[in-house]
Amino acid sequence: MAEKALITDLHAYSEAWTDKMIEIWLEKIERRRIVDTGALHESFSSQVGYLSTGATIEMKFLEYGLAQEFGVGNGYTRGNGGDLQILDPDYREAHGLDRKRRAGARSHPNMTSGKPRSRRPWFNAKYLASVRAMVEALARIGGEHAAASIADSLSSSIGSGDL
Q1: pLDDT on residue 36
Q2: What pLDDT is recorded for position 81?
Q3: How many other CB atoms are found less than 10 A from the CB of residue 120?
Q4: Phi (first) and psi of residue 111, to 5 degrees
């Protein structure tokens, strides 16, 4: 019976944690105005899978969200050593990247700022801190159930005169 209660508590915590993470992330992308088309905002989903050996938490969102987190995208390539020509003020001026202009196709309604792309952190720091908090909470829940189980065993032993 105690094991079933432990599993129920762990499942409830895992579900609540995933819901809270998505809520936090949505608030952060709204605050940072990463809502151009709303596609990232609408892409969030989560699923907690339970196995006999534990649980897996799967959270999904558009990969574009990570480009916003790290301030990368078109013009940024992996392995360039950080020397990005599109950030050079002379290059930006020569190619008209230093002034406001239409973002994307001519029909796109939004304008760029004319400033180099920068990070808009919404994911990483909060996620890592929340994972640490989740590990601590799951350990606390497990510890509480273990202590209750030991206390029940001792009470039964004392009550039956086995000790």
Answers
A1: 74
A2: 65
A3: 18
A4: -115, 150
**CB contact set of 29 (below 8 Å; sequence gap of 6+):** 35, 40, 41, 65, 68, 122
Per-residue model confidence (pLDDT) at position 88: 81
Round to whole Å and give the CA distance between 47 and 57: 6
Query: Hey, which bits of 24-149 come out as E strands?
Result: 45-51, 54-60
pTM above 0.85, yes or no: no
> By C-alpha distance, which of 53, 61, 52, 48 is closest to 15?
48
For helices 2-31 and 124-160, the axis angle rounded to 10 degrees is 160
Amino acid at 77: T
In the chain, the DSSP E strands lie at: 45-51, 54-60
